[in-house]
């Protein structure tokens, strides 16, 4: 690929790729089918971390898959993260139609999901809201409530800080490291993707998952920093869609009065106000808004009724679906 020098109007070659899988990059990875527009996004999402191979590479040729597994071992992650994505765009890849590959990938997802259609399964229930609005406490109470009724239920939380990706996110949130806004967004997304397969398995086995934060948090917080909303949503496409989103509504000023506020990077009043505005954009009629300023017991009772109705609906065979997919 040639690149025009804006000052002199001439073309010049970009510097060589900063890692050893140059030959592999000559192949058409169908990156556009994964909605990646730059080398940086691809590396962060697909190469730097351990993912579920079947989910990530199903749209790729077997040859590409094998070569990428080998290439990962020689990839200089630090160099790639510093690589300016605007230098190496994917326009150099062979011309071909990528939409059929993307559609085939989605169809494969949907075929897999369809295996549990009309069969009893667990519910995917997500709690969203500003920091310190009570999500973690209410999530734990919901799990105890469902278990008391004889339902199989588990508490999940994102980011999952127990994984290698989650540890990088944790260091960032605790102000122990610095990352570009887009890079940290992709890490948050990767953290959800590495749990996707297990999530689907649990749901099909009949376990209800109560999830403290999900993709909506990632999009709301990154877009509050000025990152394009649609760009933020793109890496989340193909994750499992929640059966229910519970939004614990609390004014940012009220949340800031709660204990522990300010311990982490994003816990600042003015920023939380921007996050609240982004949540309003993401919110759709299917969300259930709950006044989190009520006494904890009142919030708990309100959530219990909504959650139980959804759990019973999933036991009757409500099909799984994909997040933000056409």
Automatic annotation (TrEMBL):
Superkingdom of the source species: Eukaryota
UniProt GO molecular function: ATP binding; dTMP kinase activity; nucleoside diphosphate kinase activity
InterPro entries in the record: P-loop_NTPase, Thymidylate_kin-like_dom, Thymidylate_kin_CS, Thymidylate_kinase
Enzyme Commission (EC) number: 2.7.4.9
GO biological process: dTDP biosynthetic process; dTTP biosynthetic process; dUDP biosynthetic process
Matching SUPFAM superfamilies: P-loop containing nucleoside triphosphate hydrolases (SSF52540)
The keyword Nucleotide-binding is annotated on this UniProt entry: yes
Residue ranges constituting the Thymidylate kinase-like domain according to the UniProt record: 127-302
CDD domains: TMPK
Metabolic or biological pathway: Pyrimidine metabolism; dTTP biosynthesis
Gene3D superfamilies, alphabetized: P-loop containing nucleotide triphosphate hydrolases
Alphabetical keyword list: ATP-binding, Kinase, Nucleotide biosynthesis, Nucleotide-binding, Transferase
Gene Ontology CC terms: cytosol; mitochondrion; nucleus
PANTHER family from the UniProt entry: THYMIDYLATE KINASE (PTHR10344)
Similarity field: Belongs to the thymidylate kinase family.
Protein name as catalogued: Thymidylate kinase
Source organism of the structure: Acer negundo (Box elder)
């Amino acid at each position: 690929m040639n690149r025009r020098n804006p000052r002199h109007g001439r073309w010049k070659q970009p510097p060589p790729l900063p890692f050893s899988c140059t030959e592999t990059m000559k192949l058409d990875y169908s990156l556009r089918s994964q909605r990646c527009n730059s080398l940086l996004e691809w590396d962060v999402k697909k190469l730097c971390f351990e993912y579920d191979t079947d989910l990530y590479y199903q749209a790729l040729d077997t040859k590409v898959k094998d070569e990428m597994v080998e290439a990962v071992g020689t990839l200089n992650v630090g160099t790639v993260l510093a690589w300016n994505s605007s230098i190496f765009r994917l326009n150099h890849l062979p011309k071909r139609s990528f939409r059929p590959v993307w559609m085939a990938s989605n169809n494969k997802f949907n075929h897999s999901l369809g295996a549990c259609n009309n069969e009893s399964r667990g519910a995917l229930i997500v709690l969203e809201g500003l920091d310190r609005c009570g999500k973690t406490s209410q999530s734990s109470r919901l799990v105890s409530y469902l278990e008391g009724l004889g339902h199989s239920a588990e508490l999940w939380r994102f980011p999952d800080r127990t994984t290698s990706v989650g540890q990088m996110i944790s260091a960032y949130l605790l102000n122990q490291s610095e990352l570009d806004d887009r890079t940290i967004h992709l890490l948050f997304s990767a953290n959800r993707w590495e749990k996707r397969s297990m999530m689907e398995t649990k749901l099909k086995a009949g376990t209800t998952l109560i999830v403290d934060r999900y993709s909506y948090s990632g999009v709301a917080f990154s877009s509050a920093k000025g990152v394009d909303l649609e760009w933020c949503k793109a890496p989340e496409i193909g994750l499992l869609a929640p059966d229910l989103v519970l939004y614990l509504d609390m004014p940012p000023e009220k949340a800031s009065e709660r204990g522990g506020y300010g311990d982490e990077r994003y816990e600042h009043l003015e920023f939380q106000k921007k996050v609240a505005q982004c949540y309003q954009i993401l919110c759709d009629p299917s969300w259930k808004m709950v006044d989190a300023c009520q006494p904890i017991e009142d919030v708990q009772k309100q959530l219990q009724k909504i959650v139980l109705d959804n759990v019973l609906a999933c036991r009757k065979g409500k099909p799984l679906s994909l997040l933000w997919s056409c």
